[in-house]
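Incident review: delayed structure delivery

Summary: a single-chain prediction request sat in the queue longer than the usual turnaround. Root cause was a stuck worker, restarted by the on-call engineer. No data loss occurred. The affected request and its eventual output are reproduced below so the record is complete for anyone auditing the incident later.

Affected input:
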Amino acid sequence: MGWQSLFQVGGNAGSALGPLLAAYIILPRGQESLSWFALAALGGMALLTGIGRWYARSDHARPVRRGAAVRHPGLTRGQVNRALAVLMVLILSKYVYLACLTSYYTFFLMERFALAPDSAQLCLFVFLAAVAAGTIIGGPVGDRIGRKTVIWISILGILPFTLLLPHVGLTATVALSAVIGLALASAFPAIIVYAQELMPGRVGMVSGLFFGLAFGIGGMAAAGLGVLADWKGIGFVFQACSVVPLLGLFAALLPNVSPHKEP
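Output delivered after worker restart:
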């Protein structure tokens, strides 16, 4: 699980730098400055193309051997399907709340505390930096205390903080956002590795399913919350989303699993 966290922290760290770049480059220099970021994107594309070709030539690209276990040997097909459904609900909870903060946190701060855009971007950076830190911390912690425990703590455990956030002052809001980001980010590596343990013979399919689900839910949630914000106001959006971590109660339905090792 530690390697899964290390893989994800790159993306989260890049997202955390986004508000700083917006505050200190895009806002002062205008939209023309975005062209410089396109060069970085092209460099990343070239790098990934090289990695893909190397992977195709290497032994890592070999298919799963015939006879490999499709699901965890200690669970029935029904138990595996139910556990996967629960994990999808937990992904829904995590990424709806993340979409709320990543997309609308700056607007919430500017409306509630009359912050300037650059100051609001710095507060968003604090949250996203905590998300990046939580991603890398969640892996080793999950290896030590177990995936299911991390899932419990990172989703349901943030509920008191999410309920408080819309009602406190600026300093407390920033501090609570950091705690929420740190805890919530540790859930995804645990969920991915837990799902891979449920279906050890379908690691690629499971990874693709949950990464695709996460991005899809995040995009749809951002759009839906935007419509809700136009209708009821940004404060209402944060109050409504504060109860979303209650879906973490579904984690009680997850079976206890241990990694399956093929003979």
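Verification: Residues 28 and 216 are 32 Å apart (CA to CA).
Action items: add queue-age alerting; document worker restart procedure.
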